[in-house]
Write a structure and sequence with these properties.
- With 674 residues, the chain is mostly helical.
- The chain folds into three domains: 1-100 and 219-412, Growth Hormone, Chain: A (Up-down Bundle); 113-202, no CATH class; 450-674, MFS general substrate transporter like domains (Growth Hormone, Chain: A, Up-down Bundle), CATH 1.20.1250.
- The protein is 67% helix and 3% strand.
- It contains 32 helices and eight strands.
- The chain has helices at 23-48, 59-62, 67-75, 80-107, 126-133, 150-153, 169-183, 211-214, 223-250, 252-271, 276-287, 290-304, 310-335, 338-346, 352-358, 363-368, 372-385, 392-402, 414-423, 425-449, 451-476, 478-481, 485-494, 496-507, 512-535, 543-570, 576-590, 594-599, 604-623, 637-641, 643-653, 665-673; strands spanning 2-5, 8-11, 53-54, 57-58, 113-115, 147-148, 193-194, 200-202.
- The strands form four sheets. It has a two-stranded antiparallel ribbon with strand order 1-2. A two-stranded antiparallel ribbon has the order 3-4. A two-stranded antiparallel ribbon has the order 5-8.
């Protein structure tokens, strides 16, 4: 089940085709394998001399891993296809994906504005006329949504907007304002105001036009921006569930093509819509599956590259996704118009048609579906890129030899299931109800049998929800914290790059729990201090507030990756993917409330107070989790259930957990064999 983490979609419940383990588990297991590989290198070399060799690849050495890995390593012996995957597919898509995924934040940007005054009378300057017609707030700036109501100021007891013909409203307002001013030139008009009678004047220092300015999503219609953001988030959530499962059913390439073409078609349509009913629905459809585009690319690449390069692929994708967000800030500055921005961030999705000719379907997925014939064709094309010329029959023989289950290709044909639902809908409804009831009973039974695992899953869910809420809230506040929206979006994006690079270095020296708790505490403190400053009538865009907000964003970028790692290390193999996926899905569901926290609060400091309080809850929840640094992944439910007690015993002898490289060689051998 794919979900969104750290602003990035991550497939936490798409299982590894052969092992049933998630990509997170595989990556964590790879860290362990790297720690002990040196210990067994000498023995493995001696044993491999007596093992059969085939085409330069030691067959039995690969049996410990997935069997398809051996065939892939043989076909891509020179790494030519891996280079194409990483630099011609992963990197470009990671740069372009955030442009289509997060462009709505810049397209709905609301610039500074005030009410449009009636025509300036002769012998009056515009600044003087604005002082007469529009009040100022406590900061000395023109009010955004108010102007003086001279109908009531003149004691007519009748608002100008309700008196006489509206066609000459401007002339009547001008006359009433001039009459009052001639009598009270040295006085400030009474604080009797009305709404903007003549429209709005928007600052064009940055954008010439945005969706908010063109469609009037301002003042009493400001809530429409919140509705559009809600529609986008709900579309992302629904699309992750639907298209993530569909990618497992019909293949990664097909879903990638469907989603890319959907964005390329609906993106241009969206920017030309003006009816709110259509805007919300088209935005929902457009947002469906946007995160899955990125997710499919990463999962497909991880399924095809060598184990030693999976960590590199993950790091590259994370860094280039952040750089893609920075690129979108540059594109916004160059275009300065929301329609142009929507077009140039949507139309590049047509490149998916080119990728279909370059990138192959994941052989691992094809083998998992029993499609050995198609997998053999793909592997043969990969082998030709590496100057190998095997026959189709040779590769098919390898796959049949190393793949124990040669399933029928039509066994899992989705059309068969669809036909059954269409013919017997009442049976489908009954089956769904019974399945839901059975799942509920199983969850209750699991909680009773494994309370420690259930408690840790609940704590991880809280941590994930807190991280995701703070992360997206800070992203949505870019235009409030920074006067320049382009620099604001750039700074809130680029701060992720050092955070992503710093996490691996910190994890080598600090435990997971210590790092998570300390960094989240810093994040909560920064947000609470910001709330105090704003409560003291400081402006939200002062330098101190900007620094605190960027610090909070930097911290959430770190804790997101740590939470992701803790979720893999705390759950046992049988439930690792599903437990983590459920926690992440719940967190993504709560993310729907993010626009309300950012846009619907009465005072700016209210939202920071809410976010800072959530940060305290997240820090406390992470503190209650056990430390997992330097420990083997739990393989069974019983091991995971007793994990905390085993940790308490280990910490009684030392202040920190014993790392794998510090265990004597004899004990490490015993652990590996166990």
């Amino acid at each position: 089940m794919p979900i969104i983490t750290n602003g990035r979609p991550v497939n936490l419940c798409i299982d590894n085709a052969e092992t049933g383990e998630s990509v997170v588990a595989t990556q964590s297991d790879n860290e362990l394998e790297e720690n002990v590989s040196v210990l067994h290198q000498g023995n493995a070399t001696k044993k491999s001399r007596n093992k059969p060799q085939e085409d330069g690849v030691n067959i039995e050495d690969c049996n410990e891993a997935n069997n398809i890995d051996m065939v892939m390593r043989w076909a891509d012996s020179l790494g030519s296809y891996e280079c194409v995957l990483i630099w011609a597919w992963v990197v470009p898509v990671c740069l372009l994906a955030p442009c289509a995924f997060m462009n709505i934040l810049l397209m709905t940007y609301l610039p500074p504005h005030h009410c449009t005054p009636p025509p300036v009378p002769p012998n009056f300057t515009l600044p003087l006329w604005l002082n007469i017609t529009i009040p100022r707030n406590d900061g000395g700036n023109l009010e955004s949504c108010k102007m003086y109501d001279y109908g009531n100021i003149s004691n007519t007891n009748t608002s100008l907007i309700a008196a006489g013909d509206k066609n000459d409203l401007g002339e009547r307002y001008q006359m009433a304002a001039l009459n009052w001013w001639t009598q009270h030139q040295d006085d400030q008009p009474p604080n009797v105001t009305t709404g903007c009678l003549f429209g709005y004047d928007f600052s064009k220092n940055y954008f010439t036009e945005t969706a908010a300015t063109e469609m009037g999503w301002v003042c009493d219609k400001f809530y429409l921006i919140e509705h559009v953001l809600h529609s986008s988030i709900l579309g992302n959530l629904a699309g992750c569930v639907i298209f993530g499962a569909l990618a497992d059913k019909i293949g990664r390439r097909k879903v990638f093509l469907i989603l890319s073409l959907k964005v390329a078609i609906l993106g241009p349509i969206f920017v030309f819509l003006r009816d709110m009913w259509f805007v919300l629905r088209v935005r929902f459809l457009l947002s469906m599956g946007l995160p899955v585009i990125y997710q499919i690319v990463i999962i497909s690449a991880l399924e095809q590259v060598r184990d030693s390069r999976r960590g590199m692929v993950t790091s590259i994708s994370s860094v280039f996704f952040s750089l893609g967000q920075c690129t979108m800030a540059l594109l916004s500055w160059l275009t300065a118009h929301w329609v142009t921005l929507g077009l140039i961030t949507s139309l590049p999705c047509l490149l998916a048609l080119v990728y279909l000719k370059v990138i192959e379907e994941s052989p691992r997925w094809l083998v998992s579906r029993g499609k050995l014939n198609e997998a053999a064709k793909v592997i043969r094309r990969i082998a030709r890129m590496n100057d190998l010329k095997p026959t189709h029959e040779d590769i098919l023989a390898k796959l049949r030899k190393y793949t124990p289950n040669d399933e029928d290709e039509a066994k899992d044909d989705p059309s068969c299931h669809l036909c059954g639902v269409a013919r017997y809908p009442h049976l489908a409804i009954r089956r769904a109800f019974l399945s839901l009831l059975s799942t509920f009973c199983s969850v209750i039974k699991f909680v009773g049998n494994y309370p420690s695992i259930s408690c840790r899953t609940a704590l991880l869910t809280i941590c994930w929800t807190v991280n995701q809420t703070i992360y997206f809230s800070i992203f949505m506040k870019y235009s409030m914290v920074f006067k320049n929206p382009f620099l604001g979006f750039f700074f809130t994006s680029v701060v992720e790059v050092p955070a992503n690079l710093l996490v691996p270095l910190l994890l080598r020296r600090v435990g997971r729990r210590s790092l998570h708790t300390s960094v989240m505490s810093i994040c909560a403190a920064a947000l609470l201090v910001t709330a105090v400053l704003l409560g003291q009538e400081y402006e939200e865009n002062i330098l101190g507030v900007q620094a605190l907000v960027l610090l909070a964003k930097f911290c959430t970028s770190i804790t997101f990756l740590v939470t992701y790692l803790q979720a893999a290390e705390l759950h046992p193999t049988p439930i690792r993917t599903c437990a983590t996926g459920i926690a992440s899905l719940i967190a993504s569901s709560f993310n729907v409330a993010t626009p309300t926290i950012v846009l619907a609060m009465g005072k700016p400091w209210h939202s920071y107070l809410v976010l800072g309080s959530l940060g305290c809850i997240g820090a406390l929840s992470s503190l209650l989790l056990p430390e997992t640094a330097g420990r083997l992944l739990p393989q069974t439910l019983e091991e995971a259930e007793t994990l905390e007690r085993r940790f308490c015993m280990s910490f009684s002898d030392s202040r920190r957990p014993t790392m794998t490289h510090e265990i004597p060689i004899e004990e490490q051998d015993d652990q590996v064999h166990k």
